[in-house]
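Kindly draft a polypeptide, keeping tokens residue-aligned:

***
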Amino acid sequence: MDSPEHDRSRRMVMRHFGPPHTPGLVTGFEGFLTATVGSLIDDVAGKERIDVVDDFAFPLPVTVTCHLLGVPREDEPRFHLWVNDIMNSIEYNPETDPKEKLDKGVQARKDLRQCLGELVEQRHGRPGDGLLSRLANDDGPDGRMADDEIVATARLLLIAGHETVVNLITNGMLTLLRHPQVLQRLRDEPDLVVPLVEELLRYEPPVQIIPWRTAYSDITVADTVIPKGSQIMLMLASGSRDPKRFHDPDRFDPDRHDNQHLGFGSGIHLCFGGPLARLETQIALTELVRRLDRPRLVADPPPYRLSPVLRGPVHLDIEQGDG
């Protein structure tokens, strides 16, 4: 979306997602996040071999977003299945994948949209703590959000917010295992996780490219004219490694200062879920490093997703303990 429609929709959502109207939303999630992360690690703590993606990073964001939206606990397993089928269908290859993979993704999108629509309808006149309820009952300065807009916002949080957080956590664990001295520092200095996640967003971001922009007028960049109407691909990952902006940009350095990366985009489309994604990743990496017993990579590099836009391993197998 573009302004002014985009600005209106974003203002309406942000009233219930962060300051100044809801200043404690993200920080208030810390206890829930810590408990959820701890429960997932409990399930794998005794295993000699685990997959960081399937066993940990993949289920975490769905649980968190369902809690944020106010989805009833009994409905949450269905949301996990729908998100799983949608994610599997995103990289559908007609030459190698069965059509069932695509069909399940299409059906999951329909089922998810219908379920969210029903939940929003049920929330009218019943104010509550969940984001669906807040949006369904808010008559703010910009009016009330239409039900289909609320459903679209919830789907965005579930789908776009899922894959990015999965990749951020998985890229983070992979990067730490490749830098054992930093891993040990994080174990000894838990507060290091805050600048460490910022460096991770610069060094190995989950979103590498934004290919959906268009030039509204002629733009000159480095003596080259980009004509009005041209499609523009923003190379966020490349920009975050610009040697004119960052010293020794190809080195992972959690002590880096003035780290103005592009990991969450920029401008009016800056990711509004960024604060929650940061906190999820900070808690996830801190607890994984603290509780896993001498984790080691099984394969380096691990198998990666095919998408050039979203970067992250499809699996990240690690061994722990005596091996």
About this structure: The radius of gyration is 20 Å. The beta strands are 49-51, 210-214, 219-221, 224-226, 231-234, 296-297, 317-319.
